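Problem 3 from the worked examples.
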Amino acid sequence: MATYAIGDVQGCFDELTALLAHINFKTDRDQLWFCGDLVNRGPKSLETLRYARSLEDNAITVLGNHDLHLLAFAYGNKKPGKKDTLYSIMQANDATELLDWLRSQRMAFHDNKSNITLLHAGTHPAWSINKTLELAKEVEQVLRSDRHVDFYKHMYGDKPQIWDDSLTGWSRYRFITNILTRIRYCDEQGKPAFDEKGAPGSQAENLLPWYEIPDRKTQQDTIIFGHWSTLPYAGIKGINNAYAIDSGCVWGGKLTAIRIDVEPFEYSLVKCPGAQKPQLKMTKKRAP
């Protein structure tokens, strides 16, 4: 059995299909780990979501910010953006089942056998892996409960910016969610800067990528993450035991699979034509 972690698909189902053919993935033998952002911006979010769900125990999925955005949109707590491609899901006759499946997925996953952790964006430098998983479970429990609709109402926003164990309620859940699904840069005290999205070297002087913060508590832990398509080394190598695998498929980059049951890890990438171009300002809603 082979285990592959897959970078942000974002509705690029044809590219996912090509990648799985390239690695000779077999549903009765192998396992996929999706690092989040299954949907949105690409043209086939519905097909991607249906496929991930169909894999059942042969797939692990952690939620990304676009997946949560879909849930917020679906339950009436967020208006769609100009670049969103989520309408096909909402119009599907199995939409309820797909959305219920999505909100039952993890915010973080740790495999005890391989000692590898799968996240969408990253973790806070003051959190250990165990702490990260514990906090992720807090949000997971809300998403799987009747409170999930209220969660979407309070999910958006950049505050609070400083972690404190005494945080409670929606502020606590928002901070945890922001770290797990949105972080790229932070300062040495762990204060995130969500507006910074470029490649390392473009950020303000007081900021570092979260995985380069000195004394980060997860420095010795192997972490696989997506979310950051502008990293120049995505899909190539790990930095401080953190492996970035969002190689910008939806922007015309590549889609990455990293085989993690072998040492060293093996990378497979397929080219993507680009469902959207980040430099283009869209003036009309894109068809799903």
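Problem 4, a separate protein:
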Amino acid sequence: MGDQIRMSIRFQAVLLAFLTAALPLKAQTTGPWVDFTPQEWVQLEEAIDKGLGWLATQQNRNGSIGPNTKSVQPAHTALTTMAFLSRGHQPGQGEHGKMLERAIHFVLSTQDRYGFFVTDSNYDSSGSSYSHAIAGVMLAEVIGMANHSRNEQIAEAIERGLTATTKLQQRHAGEPRQKGGWRYIKRNSNDADLSVTTWHLLFLRAAKNANFNVPEYLVTDAANYVRNCFKPSDKGFGYFPGRNATITMTGAGTLCLFLAGQYDDPAAAEGIETIKDYNFTFLDKERWPYYTCYHCSQAASQAGGEVRQKTLKEITRYLLERQTEGGNWPKAKAGSVTTGPAYTTAMAILALTPSYQILPIYQQ
């Protein structure tokens, strides 16, 4: 009975947050967030809606979206669902309501007995850890939007998912440079990397925003690991501690420290300066330009001011110039690996929508 009462209180708090903080579907075209012209706002919204229209055609019979391979699911489905949520669409409502319900059902169905959201039952692929964390972020963002019975199922899944993420982080508890980080569930189990760590930290933050119990030491340890990945001579973050910095990991590391509440951290300050100075028209030379856009747009949005204006404008210009006539975003020119256009399209949309301030994880 006590658990039921606590669950009911949580739902009331989550629903109240959505009712009082929800923004209209149309982005704010006035004010200081991003000073796009009215025409630029129209172009942005048309591009996002066209991309979402294409993604809606990619749903499979089982509710998944994109390739049905163990290395990319349920991450693709979760990222696509978040892309729709970030534009103001909700499960069970409007044009895409049923599609979103089916997508959420699929993600929930992938949770295994250990609490991981995976389709790779052997955890052999490096994507398993990503899939788990990304699915957790999506579910923590969508809770409160679904009906009551579905919310109960989502809440239980998040609790189990947090337990799995916590145990995975504790694997590195005795290793000073790795403590607080995450990597893969089975492969390379004795080290951590900033890329995977970012998604697990996003999961913790999204769950905390939704009133789940996230012990502070988990976030503190994660932030300490992120600092270990900062390279002062490069003024940015690397994939591993001691590795040369990249703009992709600098966006991720800076965002991590912001979401951990470390806005005054010197590493975060250096990272945001590097993002501000970066010319995003050069992104075609990067292996992961959509991934870079996603992390840098979020980090710049959190930082505010000049860096937000410059970064979001440059990223928006870059992405809108590369959208295909069909609505999707193609594989990166320099990318040697691709997981398909559902991934690139979802990531592009998520990089374009922080200006809307709809998803809780985007909000300052």
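Solution to problem 4. The two ends are 36 Å apart (CA to CA). The longest strand covers residues 230-231.
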